[in-house]
Structures are given as C-alpha cells and as structure tokens.
Amino acid sequence: MASILLTAPAESQARDSTRPTILPSGSLLTLIDAFLTRPFANPDLRTALIDSAEARSDVAITISQQLLPWILETDTTVFRRAMRALFLSAFVAGNMREQLVSRVKGDQPYAGVVAVLDVYLMVRARAPAYRQPTLDEWLHLREQGKLRQHVAQLAQPGK
Q1: Are 152 and 110 in contact (CB under 8 A)?
Q2: Contact, 96 vs 52, CB < 8 A?
Q3: Residue 67 in contact with residue 113, Cβ under 8 Å?
Q4: Cβ distance 59 to 53 under 8 Å?
C-alpha cells in the first residue's frame, strides 16, 4: 500500500520545521472524502491535501488557467481569496481521489471539476449571492451532459 507525507494540522503554520506523518492511501481517501463532504470544516485539511498531492509519486495533477480560471481573479477581498483557495483544494482533492481509487497515475481533470462544482453548490447554499460565472456555466453544462467533453477540451495542451 502506498504511503503519503501529510503535515499535521497543528504544524501547518511552520512548514519548514514540520515532521511528516505517514498515512496509507486508504486514510488519505478518508480525509479527501471528509473534505469534500464538509469543505469548510478544517482549513488545515485543505492545505494538507494539496501538500499530499505534491508529495505523492503516484499522483499527477495539472493546474491550468483553463481548468481553474478563478485563480487569476484580481479581487482581493478575504471572501474571494478564500473561495479561490477552497476551489483549488476541491479540484486537487477530486482529481487525486480519482487517481487513488483507480490506482492509475494520470491527471483526472473531470473528477477535479466535478468536485469543484459540488463544493461550489455548498458555498452557494451558504452564500446565495455569491456567483462565479465560469462555475455557473459548468453547472449548466453538467445538467446538459456536456461537462465531460468540455473539460476534455479545456485540458488539451495549448488550449
């Protein structure tokens, strides 16, 4: 079973001096599921999941402006910055989860986008006035059954 380096939440503030805790892949899947079910519950878990994705040799995730267009937003309000971080974490968690479950290393942008949309709907339930136009468009594409094809086009190199 593969292992992972995961920064303990209490230590996440001082990354240079952290001592890693080794977790088996099954435990990581449990943490991913916990995050995707309750994405607001533990900000340290979001950070740990991204760190884990970076540290794993059996996971490959491509971060691109096409798949994460909100990353380049210039709105610097605390809420908007928090949403950007939350959606990035959801993308990484969904993408990584699919690779761990399938036991096949390879970018899974569709799974990442689906996780982002699920988290976006949870955000909208708490903050109905919040809108992210790209995510609204992707929700519409998902309803039409066209999201997978759209994500595949966005994920193509050079797009």
Answers
A1: yes
A2: yes
A3: yes
A4: yes
